[in-house]
Write a structure and sequence with these properties.
Shape: globular
Structural class: alpha/beta
Order of helices and strands: HEHEHEHEHEHEHEEHHHEH
Number of strands: 9
Largest sheet: 9 strands, parallel
CATH topology: TIM Barrel
Bound molecules: flavin-adenine dinucleotide
Strand order of the largest sheet: 7-6-5-4-3-2-1-9-8
CATH architecture: Alpha-Beta Barrel
Number of domains: 1
CATH class: Alpha Beta
């Protein structure tokens, strides 16, 4: 089923994002996480797409494993940086044959280990090129990434919003946000999008807080603010991982409740393949 339709048909719901495994142990962990979380009736589950060939193959394998494990809708992510049109074409062909109807269309990050990488030389430059390509291909309901605090490479939120508008105009049917920890960013962004005529669903992406140091690493590459209130809540537990996780999840649960209380219908969780953490949050907000 198309996610655009699922978001129209439902008044509320959650979705879960996973990442592909690299080892047999990781595969088993992912399988267990999918088994545990499918019971929460997610609207859909998605699988990220890694940089580089081997990891990209793993995305496909993991997506097919999802399809064995669950009848929930599964959406592969797809990045276009450095990709050729023919490689994307054959992947879409394969997905179509397997009955996949949704694609999260992304540019991907510029490789950090290749300082001479010239993005403009590729067959795709921006995510919107991929959106147009997938749209032309037909069949797929297309999701895109959006950034409540602006994308890290953009000069300003306003400039980013202009590009976001153009990307969505190419055929995106729903959007998932980058993580944020102050709901004001999401609400302001949502209003600005609506003000610019962006009317597709904009689903908040929720990163559970379990480890402040890891969170600092994540945000160092994505322009997300960690508010003082969050730091105050978890920093006293830097050397006590269990207490840190407890305090962090209290923050996340409050964040989710705040969004729902303000009219948000759907929440998308970056699960990091950790079912237990997600279960605690979903059970607390039900
Ligand atoms: P774009 O929309 O192309 O935007 C990238 C930058 O280019 C922005 O600064 C934008 O303002 C700018 N821009 C756009 N159009 C133009 C233009 N015409 N001229 C000048 N500048 C322009 N990465 C992965 O590798 N795999 C994943 O599975 C993955 N999943 C993600 C899921 C979510 C929910 C999110 C939020 C991000 C995800 N990412 C993933 C990260 C994403 O690939 C990076 O954030 C990447 O840097 C940008 O991707 P994009 O699709 O937003 O690119």
């Amino acid at each position: 089923m198309r996610i655009s339709q699922i978001l129209k048909d439902n008044k509320s719901g959650v979705s879960f994002e996973f990442f592909p495994y690299k080892t047999p142990k990781g595969k088993e962990q992912l399988r267990q996480a999918v088994r545990a979380l499918k019971n929460y009736n997610p609207l859909y589950m998605s699988m990220t797409y890694g940089a580089g060939g081997a990891s990209q193959e793993m995305t496909k394998e993991a997506v097919y494993m999802f399809m064995e494990e669950t009848d929930r809708v599964v959406m592969p992510h797809l990045t276009c940086i450095g990709a050729t049109k023919s490689s994307i074409d054959s992947l879409l062909d394969e997905y179509k044959t397997k009955g996949i109807e949704n694609i999260m269309a992304l540019r991907g990050d510029i490789p950090r280990d290749a300082p001479d990488f010239d993005i403009t030389k590729g067959e795709f430059v921006h995510a919107r090129d991929l959106v147009s390509f997938v749209k032309q291909y037909g069949n797929f309901s297309i999701g895109v990434a959006v950034y409540p605090e602006g994308h890290i490479e953009s000069a300003s939120l306003e400039a980013d919003l202009d590009y976001t508008r153009r990307k969505i105009d190419c055929g995106a049917e729903f959007a998932v946000t980058q993580m944020f920890f102050d709901n004001t960013f999401y609400h302001n962004f949502y209003e600005k999008c609506r003000g610019r005529g962006i009317n597709i669903p904009i689903v908040p992406g929720i990163m559970p807080v379990t480890d402040l140091n890891k969170l600092r690493q994540f945000v160092s590459i994505c322009r997300t603010t960690i508010p003082e209130s969050l730091i105050k809540q978890v920093e006293p537990f830097l050397n006590k991982p269990q207490e840190m996780e407890k305090a962090g999840l209290e923050f996340t649960i409050k964040q989710c409740r705040g969004l729902l209380a303000n009219g948000v219908k759907f929440l998308h969780f970056f699960t990091l393949n950790k079912a237990e953490v997600i279960k605690k949050i979903v059970e607390a907000i039900r």
